[in-house]
Amino acid sequence: MKAPYFGPPRFPGQVPGQGPGQGQGQEGQEARDPRERPGDRRDDSKELRTNRRIRVPEVRVIGADGQQLGVMTTYQAQALAEESGLDLVEVSPKAAPPVCKIMDYGKFKYEQKKKSQEAKKNQTQQLVKEVKFRPKTDEHDFQTKVRHVLRFLEEGNKAKVSVFFRGREIMHSDRGMKMLNRVMEAVSTKGQVEALPKLEGRSISMMIAPKS
Q: DSSP readout, 69-117?
């Protein structure tokens, strides 16, 4: 009589001592095209489709030198790219048929990244700087703060001008509005109101941007 088995469960076709799936060959695995380049199978909607990822039956092809090579089967286009040691890149997927270009895709991505970094480097970052007033700011302090606002605007930045209230001063918010109007008049040659005065807790503020 055969002794009962009390070990871990066995799966159909499993050899004793092997884990599930071992010794079962490569069944169930998708066959990989030997001509496929690394990265061709990545599913990234932001990436252009290249080489074996291009599944349409035919494409319009542009050569590496920019010459129009006409419409041909995708297989023929892929073969041309491979013969040149380059990539077939789908540059206009919505065209009929889709337009592909033969190029060095790695070099193309590097140049695009470089251009993007250069554009960001040349981009001027606009800052927001706050200048605070009080309803009873004296004339000397008022002129000093106005000069700060003018300097911020001349530098290409925005200025958030705020009037802060203490205690019962909040009951006279109209004085804050008068102060903001004075500031706007004083900087009108350099700035323009981008956001109208708004009451925020115990302060009233407005945003001034450089004149375009």
A: EEEEEHHHHHHHHHHTT-EEEEEETTSSSPEEEEE-HHHHHHHHHHHHH
Residues 75 and 113 in one domain: yes
Q: What is the pTM of this model?
A: 0.43
The one-letter amino acid at 85: G
Q: Are strands 99-103 and 128-133 parallel, antiparallel or unpaired?
A: unpaired
Return the bridge partners of 191, or none.
210
Phi, psi at residue 191, to the nearest 5°? -135, 170
How many other CB atoms are there within 10 angstroms of residue 59's CB atom? 25
Cis ω before 97 (30° cut-off from 0): yes
> Could you tell me if residue 90 is left (phi over 0), alpha (psi between -120 and 50 degrees) or otherwise beta?
beta
Please state, in angstroms and as integers, the Cα–Cα distance from residue 20 to each residue in 6, 8, 28, 122, following that order.
17, 11, 14, 57
For position 174, what pLDDT does the model report?
87
Last residue of a domain, one of 96, 119, 142: 119
Provide the residue range defining the domain that includes 134: 128-210
- Residue 46: the pLDDT is 65
Residues 135 and 199 in one domain: yes
| Displacement of CA 11 from its chain's centroid (Å) | 48
pLDDT < 50: residue spans in the chain: 11, 15, 19-36, 38-44
